[in-house]
Amino acid sequence: MKKTTDEIREMFLCFFKEKKHIILPGSSLIPENDSSLLFTNSGMNQFKKLFLEKTVNPQYTRVTTTQNCLRTGGKHNDFKNVGYTSKHHTLFEMLGNFSFGDYFKKEAIIYAWEFLTSKIWLNLPKKNLWVTIYEHDLESYNIWKNIIKIEKEKIIKIGNKNKQKYTSENFWQMSDTGPCGPSTEIFYDKGNNLFGKPPGNNSNNGIRFIEIWNIVFMQFNKLNNGNIVKLSRHAIDTGMGLERVAAIMQNVTSNYEIDLFQPTINLIVKMSQTNNLNNIHINIIADHIRSSSFIISENIVPSNEKHGYVLRRIIRRAIQHGHKLGIKSLFLHKLVPTLINSMGIYKPILEKKQKQIESILQLEESKFINTLEKGLKLLEIEISKLKNNVLKGEIAFKLYDTFGFPIDLTTEICHEKKISVDMLEFKKNLKNQKKKAKKAQFFINDTGITIPRKNSISSNFIGYNIKTSKSSITNII
Ligand code: ATP
Ligand code: MG
Ligand code: MG
Ligand code: MG
């Protein structure tokens, strides 16, 4: 039977509550006191310390959460996948169950299997499920084979082609340091009418076999010097992708066809007057308006650094794809009411920040749209002059420096035309510019304007109304 995204989330939390887990709220998208991460990228981030502690609070040995995650940089970077695969988002929701010194491999695998296949829970056909394991983890292999009784052809061992230990798709790490360990992952086969290879074939493009759940056996800690040490007690960290499971439960091929995205997609279609619902540009906008709205709701404003820069990249990429669809007027802020209405449990939180989200989007779009057209024209001219398939880094830098063109936009546009960008030269130019600006006690903003350091941008939203203080914001950005 079809299930809404909200129903699936509730079932998951309910299932683990029945298994004596305490339901805790997900954390902010901005990790607290953790310089190793810009944005929360998985459910376990907020528990990082708990994984590393020797003793455990007896109240929190079994925990379940739903966590908004953002994967736009660092170790887990899906920015460039978004729109080009039907299963990656910049922001997505990860459902998870955690054990801190309580149950381990056997129970974690049995719980996941029960939730996915039991008639009273998701009731997915067992024959459609495949699993991967870390190649050295025979314990997991035996649990799948002898207890779950999955055919051995559907248990794929994943190692590392250079035979390096502790590096594999099935050896999970939060970031370059911190808790880590072998994992076992569950994939769903959506049927042989779709293209795609079984897990283990290193193919991220297929739409047939979808990774839905990662179960990590936290046994190690990776230190700053790269050494891996054993944790004093074991732990479980799992992550199930809500949008992917919703696509399965709603019997659709792409995540963008699920209930959560449809109202926004329909509105983008209306604005762009296209008939093609399954359109990369539409999907990118639907994804990016969601992630940028959530980021702004955490009081981040677009800027040239850290969180603000990620937000700026997301907004500008969405604007560029709107441009491709032929949308002529400022449009991002007009999507916000529809987006918020379809965000289920997050609706009240987003509603409180609605004005803030709309004004920031509108301001960023109005600033960027003028330069976008000029920049695109310049890029077209430069591309037409090319004698080979490489765009000079100097040109990419000029676009960035003079037109505020994020380098990702240049590389994405070039990539579509099978042209590469000389990134080494681009970075050299960028470094030189930063050096000069530092020397002069100035910084140069994304539109090429040089500003004294004392006016530098703060990432924290201080609250403004677009009508009354647009000019002051324009002055500082
Ligand atoms: P993939 O290989 O598809 O990129 P992953 O192995 O990087 O996924 P994990 O780090 O194992 O993902 O995260 C746990 C689960 O979260 C995945 O099994 C998947 O269901 C979901 N997930 C991961 N990345 C995304 C994303 N960008 N958008 C939507 N869901 C995601
Ligand atoms: Mg990934
Ligand atoms: Mg994976
Ligand atoms: Mg995974």
Automatic annotation (TrEMBL):
Catalytic activity: tRNA(Ala) + L-alanine + ATP = L-alanyl-tRNA(Ala) + AMP + diphosphate
GO CC aspect terms: cytosol
Keyword Lyase: no
MF (Gene Ontology): alanine-tRNA ligase activity; aminoacyl-tRNA deacylase activity; ATP binding; tRNA binding; zinc ion binding
Parts of the chain that traverse the membrane: none
Domain named Alanyl-transfer RNA synthetases family profile: residues: 3-477
Co-factor binding details: Binds 1 zinc ion per subunit.
Cofactors required: Zn(2+)
Compartments (UniProt record): Cytoplasm
Swiss-Prot/TrEMBL GO biological process terms: alanyl-tRNA aminoacylation; negative regulation of DNA-templated transcription
Top-level taxonomic group: Bacteria
Annotated EC: 6.1.1.7
Known function: Catalyzes the attachment of alanine to tRNA(Ala) in a two-step reaction: alanine is first activated by ATP to form Ala-AMP and then transferred to the acceptor end of tRNA(Ala). Also edits incorrectly charged Ser-tRNA(Ala) and Gly-tRNA(Ala) via its editing domain.
UniProt family annotation: Belongs to the class-II aminoacyl-tRNA synthetase family.
Subunit-structure text: Homotetramer.
Domain notes from UniProt: Consists of three domains; the N-terminal catalytic domain, the editing domain and the C-terminal C-Ala domain. The editing domain removes incorrectly charged amino acids, while the C-Ala domain, along with tRNA(Ala), serves as a bridge to cooperatively bring together the editing and aminoacylation centers thus stimulating deacylation of misacylated tRNAs.
Name used for this protein in its record: Alanine--tRNA ligase
Organism: Buchnera aphidicola subsp. Schlechtendalia chinensis
Gene coding for it: alaS
Residue span relative to the full protein: 1 to 477 of 880
